[in-house]
Amino acid sequence: MSLRLLIYYSKLMGITLDELVGKLEPDYQKSATDNALWNAIKTLNDNQKEKLLATIKIWKQ
User: Fold this and answer.
1) What would the 3-class secondary structure string for the chain be?
2) What is the reported pTM?
3) What is the distance between the alpha carbons of residues 38 and 40, in angstroms, rounded to a whole number?
4) Nearest Cα to 39, choosing from 16, 14, 9?
5) How many Å from the N-terminal Cα to the C-terminal Cα in the chain?
6) 7 pLDDT tier (thresholds 50, 70, 90)
7) What is the pLDDT of residues 19-55, one digit of tens each?
8) Which of 17, 20, 48, 58 has the CA that lies 20 to 30 A from 8?
């Protein structure tokens, strides 16, 4: 399969390429919170995503 096709399938299924090809870190477990965050982030426009990223950087300090 081409990378373009793999990307298409991962977007279609709402998962990452790692999940699609099965190369996740062994300790990683996707949670309901991960899914909720991802679904919320997908609905944001670029400006909103930049603001969210700036907010997260502030929280991490």
Assistant:
1) CCHHHHHHHHHHHCCCHHHHHCCCCCCCCCCHHHHHHHHHHHCCCHHHHHHHHHHHHHHHC
2) 0.49
3) 5
4) 14
5) 42
6) confident
7) 777 765 666 667 778 888 888 999 999 999 999 999 9
8) 48
